[in-house]
């Protein structure tokens, strides 16, 4: 049975499902069924008829009997019945969440964004998965003598960003109060951390350019800059992983998670894996943009040039069949659809590429100054 570790927001969605926010049935629906349904999107294909869902501590918490699937460019959507097998790890402020506050309220205020102005009565705040930010806002509201409820914000990957406010209002009216007033406060700006993800074929020059960008940022910026190079990560963070699609995706997911943690604390993370799959690059972008800024750099050195360099002899071994599932030869490289910067084409030198990436990160007017 395939095991899926849920993200914090996917766990929120499961929590809402159990609280009755999507009706009496415990089930995931396909996105075509409408915005007011729980959905589950996975990065890869799904062949099995049963899935085990894990919480953030890798503990099995539910099983899904897969009844239908639907695939698009973002991954595979699952429709099926859910059976809860164990309580997930306790969520922040569990006493304020739907499962612990069964008594319905007549009126409440849903606060979307940062607090601005006077509030009274009961205030509903959303848990986006950032425990520190949630603690700050709950503490501030309680200090002012306000009653607080916490609405888990679901992943709801099928709902466009512009419609998420309506969805949250709908969910709050089901699990907390019959009459919900929405206050759209100041939207919290992302932090000043940055995740820079370099992607490109083996031998494209990713590591060389990433190292030069790292050196320049360390000279120009007051922020701590961390380089997560593909080979070093493979040796340490992802030791033991192979080169199947599943292992490659896990490798990139680990890099994205570590990089997002660096960014969440105000740092700059420079990552240089091959990252051949669009779905995983999109997942890293989603993780990073929850806490700061994300920049995708495509090192577009052509395959024939990468193969001509071949300092490690990897392409020769792949052509001879000695290395299986080698990107660009026996495994696909999906050209980025959403690259913020493209470098390395037409024989561009590493120094020029590093200049352009650095410029994209700090801006021309800020070169030579602190970010």
Largest sheet: 6 strands, mixed
CATH-level-4 superfamily name of the largest domain: P-loop containing nucleotide triphosphate hydrolases
Order of helices and strands: EHEEEEEEEHEHEEHEHHEHEHHEH
Binned strand content = 15-25%
Let me know the average pLDDT: 89
Q: Name the overall outline.
A: globular
Task: Determine and state the CATH class of the largest domain.
Answer: Alpha Beta
Q: Could you tell me the CATH topology label of the largest domain.
A: Rossmann fold
The Rg value, from CA coordinates, equals 23 Å
In the predicted model, the low-confidence regions spanning at least 5 consecutive residues are 365-371
CATH-derived architecture of the largest domain:
3-Layer(aba) Sandwich
Number of domains: 3
Helix tally equals 10
N→C terminal distance? 48 Å
Work out the helicity level: 25-40%
Description:
- The chain is of the alpha/beta class.
- It contains ten helices and 15 strands.
- It has three domains: 2-84, Sulfate adenylyltransferase, CATH 3.10.400; 94-184, no CATH class; 194-366, P-loop containing nucleotide triphosphate hydrolases (Rossmann fold, 3-Layer(aba) Sandwich), CATH 3.40.50.
- The longest helix is centred in the last third of the chain and has 20 residues, at 245-264.
């Amino acid at each position: 049975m395939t095991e899926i570790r849920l993200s914090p927001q996917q766990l929120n969605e499961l929590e809402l499902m159990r609280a009755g926010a999507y009706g009496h049935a415990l089930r995931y629906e396909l996105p075509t069924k409408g915005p007011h349904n729980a959905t589950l999107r996975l990065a890869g294909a799904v062949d099995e008829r049963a899935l085990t869902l894990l919480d953030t501590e890798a503990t099995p918490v539910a099983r899904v009997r897969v009844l239908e699937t639907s695939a698009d460019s973002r991954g595979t959507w699952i429709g099926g019945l859910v059976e809860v097998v164990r309580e997930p790890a306790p969520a922040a402020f569990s006493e304020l969440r739907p499962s612990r506050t069964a008594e319905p309220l007549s009126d409440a205020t849903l606060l979307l964004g940062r607090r601005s102005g006077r509030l009274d009565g009961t205030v509903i705040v959303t848990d986006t998965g950032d425990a520190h930010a949630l603690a700050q806002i709950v503490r501030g509201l309680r200090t002012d003598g306000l009653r607080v409820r916490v609405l888990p914000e679901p992943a709801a990957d099928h709902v466009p960003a512009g419609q998420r406010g309506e969805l949250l209002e709908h969910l709050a009216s089901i699990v907390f109060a019959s009459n919900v007033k929405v206050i759209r406060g100041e939207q919290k700006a992302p932090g000043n951390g940055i995740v820079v993800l370099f992607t490109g074929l083996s031998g494209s020059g990713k590591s060389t350019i990433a190292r030069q960008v790292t050196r320049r940022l360390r000279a120009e910026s007051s922020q701590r800059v961390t380089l997560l190079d593909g080979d070093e990560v493979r040796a340490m963070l992802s030791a033991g992983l192979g080169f199947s699609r599943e292992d490659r995706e896990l490798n990139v997911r680990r890099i994205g998670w570590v990089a997002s943690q660096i960014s969440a604390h105000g740092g700059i993370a420079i990552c240089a894996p091959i990252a051949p799959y669009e779905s995983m690059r999109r997942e890293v972008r989603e993780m990073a943009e929850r806490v700061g800024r994300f920049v995708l750099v495509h090192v577009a050195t052509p395959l024939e040039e990468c193969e001509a360099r071949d300092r490690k002899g990897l392409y020769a071994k792949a052509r001879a069949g000695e290395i299986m599932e080698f990107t660009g030869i026996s495994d696909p490289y999906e050209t980025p659809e959403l690259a913020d910067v493209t470098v390395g084409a037409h024989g561009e030198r590493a120094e020029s590429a590093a200049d352009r990436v650095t410029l994209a990160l700090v801006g021309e007017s800020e070169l030579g100054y602190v970010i």
